[in-house]
Amino acid sequence: MAFGWKTQYEKRVPAEGLNNWEIFSIVRQACKELEWEYLVVDENLFTATTPTHWTLSEEIIKISVENDQIIFRSRSESLELYEAGRNQKNIEEFLLPRFKKIKSSWKSEELHRTANALRDDTLKQIKSGNRVTGEKVTFGPKDHGMTFFLLAVHVLVFIAMAIRGINLIEPSAADIINFGGNVKFNVTGGQWWRLITNIFVHIGILPLLVNLFGLYFMGLMVESILGKLKFLIAYLTTGVLASLISIVWVSEGVGAGATGAIFGMYGVFIAFVTTPYVNKKFSPLWLFGAIAYAAFNIVIGFKGGNDNPSMIGGFIAGLGTGYLFYFFHFKRELARAGGTRISIEVLLLTTLIVYFYLRVHGRNDSLRFEREVMKLNQIEVKAMVQMQHLQSAQSNNEAVSVIRDSALPQWKHFQEEITKTGAYSLSSEYRKKRKLLNEYAGLRVRQTELMYKSIAEGTDKYNGEIDEVSDRIEKIIDQLGD
Fold it and tell me: How many whole angstroms separate alpha carbon 44 and alpha carbon 459?
């Protein structure tokens, strides 16, 4: 047992005349039965990894042959608070017993045939530079469990939106915000978690279906390269960075959807394609699917139906993440086994980027002012709805009641809220906007009071002043729209 440092265990057993490929063939079968990920690096080294457990740690298994001895090594890949003797168990209780059982059950002809096939396949993969696609491509959840898990989360969130009665074709901005949409003013105001939640919220069923296809398609390839844990971390970190770049690039509007994270997976995949790790010879079907998905998103992005900054940001973040994984893990280990340490470092780097951005921008008065403006828009909508109720009023008493009890209090609330921003330190552009909104609030209150008097007194003498105030309101609205 050990506390707080990397640990390892080594066991040497006689090779008993077996050559390297025969030994690796037996070890490979043992890893399959144990459900450990593995890779035959070359004729001198076999690597594998145990499943990740609750400590976010895993052990790297390495098998080599020296001086007619088989060396079994198990090493914790990262620092651990409590190792619990797992490295010794990996060898003594799991791998060696299965190795001996398989060795005794295989006939010499079968062992020789299996070893030759493994040697030929491995050398062919090494020569072509392919460490992934030489394996048979599968499409089900067995080999792509994390991809299917993420697909399920996206669908479940959308079902929850449907249960809440949200429009599934064109949901409102308010509904998207309520479900965790990405809004700059909310994020910088302390709701940092929106950088994550918005990835799983979609603005309608069409974007959802498109992204489900994109996630499934990219998941088949990227999860095959990275493995489950590293794929999940890459998906979330590129999605968060895409969301952050989106609010940096565009300060207004609501962002949502998995497009940034999926384009991040494009970036990860292309990063690996530019290394010797992945074969460049892909089926035209894969290439067509990748181009079709990217082209569709770019087209609807130019039409305003997609968050282009998020796509571009996700792609760039994906490239960076892919190269980090390759140069700091895959190139060193030459296997997709392991990767806990670099996974933690990628998470830490992403967290630091978000932290420093929020540290710089989180208390910006301009952003606070914009957040207040969004609240004012909601108050204005409520007031305008009440004003429209006047047209359906059955009597003057009912109309007076609507103005006195509903419309006028809303406009006064609007006026109070804009007044509170007077202490904010703003740029000249924002000061001008605040001045116009303050004047607009006063005119709306005056207009509503005049209408109240006109209806309550049953007179037309206020009509001229009402028209004058209405004209001034229209001019301010035009100025605010410029």
Answer: 100
Question: 55 falls in which pLDDT band (50, 70, 90)?
Answer: low
Phi, psi of 255 (to 5 degrees): -110, 145
For 195, left (φ over 0), alpha (ψ -120 to 50), or beta?
A: alpha
CATH topology of domain 8-128: TATA-Binding Protein (3.30.310)
Give 364's contacts (C-beta < 8 A, 6+ positions apart). Answer: 188
pLDDT tens for each residue of 262-290? 999 999 988 888 887 776 655 556 666 66
Reading the block at residue 424, the tokens are 């904010």
Among 244, 289, 250, 284, which Cα is nearest to 266's? Answer: 289
Q: pLDDT tens digits, residue range 131-167?
A: 554 445 566 777 788 999 999 999 999 999 999 999 8
One-letter identity of residue 105: S
Answer for the pair 161, 176: CB distance below 8 angstroms, yes or no.
Answer: no
Best CATH choice for the domain 145-361 from the list 1.10.10.10, 3.40.50.970, 3.40.50.300, 1.20.1540.10: 1.20.1540.10
Which residue type does 291 have? I
Can you count the helices (H) and strands (E) in the chain?
Answer: 20, 5
Q: What is the DSSP string of 87-144?
A: HHHIIIIIIHHHHHHHHHHS-HHHHHHHHHHHHHHHHHHHHHT-SSTTSPP--STTS-
Nearest residue to 217 (alpha-carbon basis) of 121, 283, 300: 283
Instruction: Give the bridge partners for 64, in sequence order.
Output: 71
Q: Which residue has the tokens 């074969």?
A: 279
